Amino acid sequence: MRSFVVAIGRALADHPDEIAVSELQGKRTVVLEMRCHPDDMGRLIGKSGRTINAMRTLLETMAAKQKQKSVLEVVEYARNDGHSES
Q: How far apart are CA 57 and CA 19, in angstroms?
């Protein structure tokens, strides 16, 4: 599932080299966290969340075949400019 998310993320992103996906496997749940460049957040989420929701639907189908549940989150890389975001 991780490679699927990486492939889709890189295909959509303007900064494909900055797409990174971490996977946490539980007994019945797999959690995927996709990190991306801040400029790619909107592109990966899509208008009204359509793109990310489509990816989640496909992941849920893949996970269901393995009798699991899936969670996908998109996170931008933390900025290292000394400013904290609230």
A: 20
Question: What are the residues facing 24 on neighbouring strands?
Answer: 31
Those residues whose C-beta lies under 8 Å from the C-beta of residue 14, and which sit 6 or more positions away, are: 37, 39, 40, 43
Which parts of 1-86 are beta strand (E)? 20-25, 29-36, 69-76
**Sign, CA torsion 10/35/21/25:** negative
Q: Tell me the pLDDT tens digit for each residue of 28-68.
A: 999 999 999 999 999 999 999 999 999 999 999 999 999 99
